[in-house]
Specification:
The chain has helices at about 15-25, 50-60, 65-70, 80-85; strands at about 5, 30, 40-45, 75-80, 90, 95, 100-110, 115-120, 125, 140-145, 145-150, 155-160, 165-175, 175-180. By secondary structure, the chain is an alpha/beta fold. Strand 1, helix 1 (about 15-25) and strand 2 form a beta-alpha-beta unit.
Length: about 190
Amino acid sequence: MDPIAIIDYGAGNLRSVQKAFEKLGYAADFVSDPALLDSASAVVFPGQGASPSAMAELQRHRMAESVCQWIRDGKPFFGVCLGLQLLMEHSEEGDTPGLGVVPGRAQRFEGNLKIPHMGWNAVEPVHSHPVFSGVPIGSYFYFVHSYYAAPTDSSWIAGVTNYGTEFASVLAKDNVIATQFHPEKS
């Protein structure tokens, strides 16, 4: 099987994502060259960092359009944390345009909440999806983020979490799955 491509945008939890795949028996390589996507079985966009710098690096390496084309071609894509947020059309963080795969925006938590949201929170499925196969309802996952996705098309929302407000913590449609939480840490 071809290796999984982990998008390397100069930040993020690359090594922990790679080690998680290796533990599951999959080869996973860091990729910052669009030409290397051709030999991948799936793409993972891990998340840590800030929207402006991550998008700038994706643009600099010509990866933004390649990732969007990968998704349009119906190939398996998994986004984690910032990798979920950048699927949106826009992020409030630095007033940054996103990849535009999911209609909506990433917005900052408001109110008297401790930011970043860091710790274990439950994810409630919105509808049946294979990503929840074998996962007990109300399972807890590890979150670290100050922004969250607010899709304008609710058909993308597969799971929600409450942290002062209910937000989309799992997006899924066709070949795309993305989580706000960090499964590699959960």
